[in-house]
Amino acid sequence: MKEKLKNIFFKFWYWYVSVVDKNAEVIFMNYGYSKDNQKIELDEKDEKNRYSIQLYHLVATGVEIKGKDILEVGCGRGGGLSYINRTFAPNSAIGIDLNKKAIKFCNKKYSSEKIKFFQADAQKLNFEDNAFDVVINIESSHRYSRVDLFLSEVYRILKPGGVLLFADFGNQYDLRKLNRQFKNRNFKRLKNEIITENAVEALKLSTPNREELVRKLLPKFFQNLGGNFAAIEGTTTFNKFLTREFEYVFYVLSKYFFINLTQKRY
């Protein structure tokens, strides 16, 4: 019941933000990253989204992106892909999301940037085989009904040696299942890092801004639910990270081919 309520609110939140967020204040929806309050250098316009951007920065430095063809699956309102495009200079950048309003927002807001956005299902990607050097997926996969289908599609559209940059959270059962799915899809693990403590630090530091945004955008009767959705310090979601019921993980995974060199002898 709780999960169903969360999914209903998630859909409502996307719709509601598209209606009331006239100044494009919500362009990130991840929980963020901070390590000992170290701060990367940012443009002034990016400062209000510092901790969410720092998660994208961490993920994007998992592999060389300059000059590569990249795809973000689950791009939301496009802030992360915009930052990566401006900072790491890929050859091309495409973002997809299932939500039509989010894609419409992205195409309007980032029309001056070299990014393309399309509505698409993460579990059925409408791209040719071997199309991308890098696929990025941040805090999105936990809402997919079939993560195994998503991973199969990512493997298909990655070029040989291409990389999946993946960050998400879950409980221990979810993460064990996820690791099995990575292995079953023949991904080679280049990096695996638990960043739960960094997510907690970011949530603590960003709580004042998150509280202000919730009060500003949501009617009073939705603010408690909105605060929990945003993992504001003290909420149930925040405490799940604090007690490590939820773990936040970051993976760098490579498309790996097994070549059978064994020949039959007659």
Structure at a glance:
This protein is of the alpha/beta class and 266 residues long. The chain has helices spanning 2-20, 50-60, 79-88, 100-109, 147-157, 172-184, 196-217, 223-229, 236-242; strands at 69-73, 92-97, 116-119, 132-138, 158-170, 187-194, 247-255.
Question: How would you explain this protein's 3D organization?
Answer:
- The protein is α/β, with parallel strands linked by helices.
- It has one domain: Rossmann fold (3-Layer(aba) Sandwich).
- It is 41% helix and 20% strand.
- The protein has helices at 2-20, 50-60, 79-88, 100-109, 147-157, 172-184, 196-217, 223-229, 236-242; strands at 69-73, 92-97, 116-119, 132-138, 158-170, 187-194, 247-255.
- A 7-stranded mixed β-sheet has the order 3-2-1-4-5-7-6.
- β4 (132-138), α5 and β5 form a beta-alpha-beta unit.
- It is globular.
- Residues 258-266 have low confidence and may be disordered.
**Could you tell me the strand content as a percent range?**
15-25%
Tally of domains:
1
Q: What class would the helix/strand composition place it in?
A: alpha/beta
Give a count of the beta strands, DSSP E runs of length 2 or more: 7
Q: Secondary-structure element sequence?
A: HHEHEHEEHEHEHHHE
Number of helices: 9
Shape: globular
Radius of gyration: 19 Å
How would a crystallographer describe the biggest sheet?
7 strands, mixed
